[in-house]
Fold each of these.
Amino acid sequence: MLNRKNKLLLLKVLSLFSVVRGYNILVIALAQYLASIYILAPELPVRSVVLDLNLFVIVLASALVIAGGYIINNFYDAEKDLINKPRKSMLDRLVSQRFKLTTYFVLNFIAVFAASYVSFKAVFFFSSYIFGIWIYSHKLKRIPFLGNFISATLAITPFFVVFVYYKNLQAVIFVHAVFLFLLILAREIVKDLENISGDLAQNYRTIPIIYGARTAKLLISFLIFLTLVPSLLLIFRFDVGHMNFYFVFCVLLLLLFIMMLFKAKARKDYVWLHNIIKLIIVMGVFSILLIDIDLVLNRIV
């Protein structure tokens, strides 16, 4: 049995894990590795990719910067989250704001220091990434659409750094990136609909607040229809192995999403829509394995 002190310590660890959204970071790190193996460097043996120390440092630095980004975002959104996510907010508040800021600076310092192992360009990249996340959290997220656009851009940045590392300029990679970017951008506007109560209380100028929920829904629908374009290209134009079944499923699910979107009225409806997009993204990470199901057997050595 845990005593009171150990229970409090465990709760604080869970609180910090909640603040940095450790589950999201694990999925992103896995996605970076799978994208490297199956999409960015398919000609290399699996072992050489997995054991590449430079790639490991890049993934580690990405994880640390993203964790720091969640912390600084949580710091600026503390009051808003108390309205939109009261239960999660109460758990997050078990860790003091001072400790969160200290952790934020430590994580970013370690990330930049680790990046110095790879190259000076990596140091510059991650320093810029850290600054981009801070300026977004501090200023840009309050600007309608621009804040959404910057947020989606920052979300795909960890994949961009791996793309640069392998210098793979194939069109199929660009189409994958467009699909993911449009999906995340649509999710950001859904989150604005979901969090409209807290945004109103904190004077955030989001698209639903300024232009209304209907305009926000029309914009989301437009982005989802745009998402169908790279989906269909990846099904019919590019060779993505059995991953084409994933994109077929995405097309059907996104059409259902649009129908549900215009029926949505309450916050719980937007939470469902948000979760549908999250499901598509997470499934997409694991469906990368379907690009070449014989890969582990043929390229493990």
Amino acid sequence: MAEPRENITTLPVESRSKFDQRGRARPMLSRDADAMYWMCRYVERAEHVARLLMINASTLIDVGDLETDALNKLWLSILRVFRIEHPPPSDLPLAEAISRYMTFEIANPNSIVSCLTRARENARSIRENISAEMWEALNSSYLSVRADDAVARFDESREDFYRSVLASSMLFQGLTNQTLPHTQRWQFAQVAKYFERIDVTSRILDTRWSLLASGELTIEPQLRNIHWMGVLRSCCSIETFRREYPGEMDPLRIAQFLILRNDFPRSIRFCVEQASESLTSLRTMTSRAIDPAERIVGRLLAQLDYAELAEVLNVGISRYLQNIQHQISEAATAVQKAYFLY
């Protein structure tokens, strides 16, 4: 999940005109593509961190008192989602330590402050290639979480603090769609957003499935519905799911919805399709041959297109999700090699 540091231009200096002799757009400089990609991944990641922390705290209020072991497992699951193996050293209670570590710790590459800082640094390096509205929205979000009163606002109302981060991310994404030409830069933004969304959504479902469906977490049966609702809320899908499946929270239906639904913008299947379309567009715009990233994502899309819940269950939901994570990781590496590091 670390950002690559090497940036090499794709074209010699003397050939960097906007269009070639046949009017086709030249490939972007690799350092510009790299910065656009990571700027958008970090904005998306900050949104996921804020929503997960907010929903976890809200869900624990709804379920009331839990045993210390269960409470700790639910908070530690947030670290597991972002592949953080050990809780931060702190004299604070675990919930408080994790909340602050995932919000303000600049040394943590997955904290909200760290993500927005890195997003802003990438945006500044391509300031002339993004819209003024995009820069202003991202800069305002960064200044808000780095302000002198940020911790005080966080302590006063954590939900308001996190909702501000969510709103800023959605504003930035909307402005990206509405103020940036849908050329190569926009396509890199889409690939980044959907790769990050696939990765985090699959890890949220994988982590919570191991806690709630496998018996790792001991919770009274009547409280499990609230926790499964929290999973859906963490993926912005509670309303859509309940309109489709009113009544009790069925874990299998939740897994099917978040993995295989083809018309919901937060489902894994939908995000894979969008990432595949953007990779195909990039290849067309740059007159490249099909590269490994497009092949990996294309195969994953075909797999999801024809998958059924029974097939997922046969593999095992956790293993199925981990396979998706592995393929997206391979695709992300292939994008870097194809467009940023050659």
Amino acid sequence: MLKPMRLPARLLQRKAQTHKGDYGHLFILAGSARFSGAGLLCAEAALRSGAGLVTLGLPKSINLAAIKIKPKEVMTLPLPETKEGTLGLNAFTRIFQMLRQADVLVIGPGLGNNKSTYALIRRVINKCPVPAVIDADGLNALSSNLGILMKHKGVTILTPHQKELSRLFGLDITRVQKDRKLIAKKYAKYYNNTIVLKGHETLVAGSGGELYVNKTGNPGMATAGSGDVLSGMIGAFLTQGLEAFSAAKYAVYLHGLAGDIAAKDKTQMGMIASDIIDRIPEAIKRCS
């Protein structure tokens, strides 16, 4: 049996004289009319992973529905949208105002591939004043626009699966599958970011050449929303003061461990992303 990884004291130890602001404010830009649950999964996972405050930026048409089903602790920010129900470029001003209040940004889950949405994503990342976790449609919007990664002066964590990474960097998918470790390390160093290459034995590659190969997790986690959960966990650990590589490493490990715990109860076949969220506290307990 795999010996549990011990979490750093910074995450586990909380002083008696403390308040929610001490554990950071995470701002999540996620969701669209078609993928309304992505942001909710991301936000709940962040709260279960210790973030002090979570604000979820949503297209205004799905905000009301989200309020009815979201965890009560999640704040929402209704934003201007396109006719397709995705976030539009005209939402940038309100988003940037919120970024001035936040400590970390997660951007991408379920945002959709609308042209105006992609333009918004690129502008937000280009101007973002805080560390950013970029996932899903956030990554797709950067394809052929990689110069933006160079312009973002803050910490950046990219969380692609193999197909997204091949599309992002213009690589053949078979090459990515064959040389996962080499490619993850190469591009993390070149773009000065951290790359979480998701899949069996997820890799975390740091800008300084570090590489972590994860051993937790199971095939049952190949289910809708699992990646949104991971993005929320990484964002939460960043808000609590971990540097990029450590935040990604511990989040990946706990995400997989929570999935392993869930599989024992729900089975790999019957597991859904919400089951992973429900087991995050147990995973944390095992690593304390």
